[in-house]
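job 3f2a | input accepted
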Amino acid sequence: MAEIFEEYVTVGGKRLRKGYTTGTCAAAAAAAAAYLLTTGERPALVEVELPQGRRINLPLARLELTKEGALAAVTKDGGDDPDVTSGLDICAEVRLTDDGNISIAGGPGIGVVTLAGLKVPVGRPAINPTPRAMLEQNLRRVLPKGKGAAVTLSVPGGEETAKRTFNPRLGIMGGISILGSTGIVNPMSEDALKQSLKVELAVLHNRLPQDMPVIFAVGNYGLDFLHSRGIAAENVLKISNYLGFMLDAARELGVKNLLLVGHIGKLVKVSGGIFYTHSHTADARLEILTAYAALAGGGADVLRRVYAANTTSAACAEIDAAGLAEVYRLVAENAARRARTYTYDEIEVGALLFGDENRLLYAEETARRQLIQLEAAANGKAAEL
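job 3f2a | predicted structure (385 res):
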């Protein structure tokens, strides 16, 4: 008999249970509803394929026929990770079609995007691209050849729960988002994670040649950007939101050469002196960008649009349209300066700034030297900036 997904990760001596995302729940529920329609069977578990190809089994909270098709629900379980969406039923009602196409709509409890700058267009349900692709992929595994499906996702209680998330601030109204890039939730104790990062830094620092820069990837996208530039991952430490803690750790360990690599949504905070970059604690991105846009010569109308932008990406679109590339120089140079000051000028810090789709925005002078050094050490060629 298939076993229900149950995995653990040990962090700081604690055994923490993994969970699964709203995207995984939605894909599993849709697949289960389609399975009932095509076979007439009502299994207790549903198999779902994750983005990397792995398959896991989840329990069904609900599976029944409806007037037009079938409805299934999977209860969101974030494991030991604190998550306000845990316990919600992610429902999918499926109606079979003969056109071979798959359509995905949002029902009650699924938020709707009302402001530009997110991965989902304005007016569409807040179902991110990876979960959407995962849902379609799992339906294709179940549907007979030539058959299509019309899917409506819903989340009872989703609208109330969304009020305790950042969705309203992002312009996602009326419910939660369907999210997840890997399908699995990996829980982390914050203190344990910080100590683990400190240990990783010590190992990295000891392994690298003395004059080689340690690379801090600030946020989740830094590794992808560095990979796109040919920078070896073994020289990089992804530090999450803990820049201040990690700068202290670097100073304590005797690091002398450090490169910060971050998306503008993270480094703009550092440029304003914010060293814990999670938006729940500190978020002055638009205010800082507005100030830099003013310093770069932006007019009052441009400043108002930057300040009123829904996301950093939307603000960057306004900055680009106004031809204010000087803003990116200010972000990168001030981020490097602030970090150097934070370490009492004991660490030489460079800053490499990028935007959406791994677009290089600015590399300040120290970062340019460091990149040339890193690239030369890798293959004898200078990095292209």
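job 3f2a | The first helix runs from residue 22 to 39.
job 3f2a | closed
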